[in-house]
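Re-running the complex after MR caught last week's input typo. The corrected sequence lines follow. Everything else is unchanged.
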Amino acid sequence: MAQYTRGYRVDGDAIRKAAEILAGASHAIALTGAGVSTASGIPDFRGPRGLWRLVDPELFSIDYFHADPLTVWRHYASLYRAIRGARPNPSHYALSGLEAMGVVKAVITQNIDGLHQKAGSRRVVELHGNAFRARCTSCGAVYGIEWALEQLAGGTPRCSRCGGLLKPDVVFFGEPLPMAALNEALRLAFQSDAILVAGSSLAVSPANRIPVIVKRRGGKLVIVNMGATMLDGEADVKIEGATEKALPAICKRVAEIVGSDKTLCTSRI
Ligand code: NAD
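Corrected-run output:
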């Protein structure tokens, strides 16, 4: 039975229930989306102030990129500027705290902002790539994004080894997910008896298949999101609220249950 809380006031019963599920699991994982990073100043895609209201999604399709890479690179440069200086927020620290307690085994993320790693999460599976890298579409060589953006002054960034076209190392519409990350996420899903989904509308496939796998195998699903998700009907607990409020509260309650240090749930940097 799903439980709901409204707005920013996060209901204590739902927090307790979510914490019990996570603390009682033998292998819990988390799946995060853009909503965990809005409190760091990075807009989500589909929320009320979402990026799709500012940038045309068609620009970030692989077909458009191959047709006009320079235009896409220029737009990417402004998107990257929104991400570059962002700092982790309480959502990221709570998730790294849950990992430090041994409760959450890994974070699978749809985000490209690297904020889980900055908050201290160690096992992070990036399904949609990483905004801080560029990759050669011909030979696969990887470059730092700043270097690639510097090349923009002279035209489309090119690989210094083979001359191939560089592309931001993030998954564009129409592109497959990186195979290694997808396989790792699927392996984790098949091992897990609980999943915490945070800040995702679960509108994007195949990421939204991961909680379905956990549920089909008899595991529990906890969702923390502002707004409806595609899997609300399947959730054991749905917390309708801000992740930066709910996740630290869940983390502290888990710490009480498993006898861990609550300070792990907040910034250690
Ligand atoms: P989404 O935009 O589809 O969903 C985000 C959800 O989070 C929405 O339902 C929104 O209402 C909710 N939300 C926003 N702020 C919240 C908060 N503080 N607390 C709780 N919920 C909040 O994003 P998605 O599900 O991650 O999928 C879209 C794609 O967007 C992904 O592929 C991802 O790669 C990409 N993306 C990434 C970033 C990033 O790296 N930070 C930012 C924008 C988009």
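None of the earlier attempt is carried over here. Residues 35 and 47 are 8 Å apart (CA to CA). The pocket of nicotinamide-adenine-dinucleotide is lined by residues 33-35, 37-39, 42, 44-47, 50-51, 110-113, 128, 199-201, 203-204, 225-227, 242-244 (CB under 6 Å).
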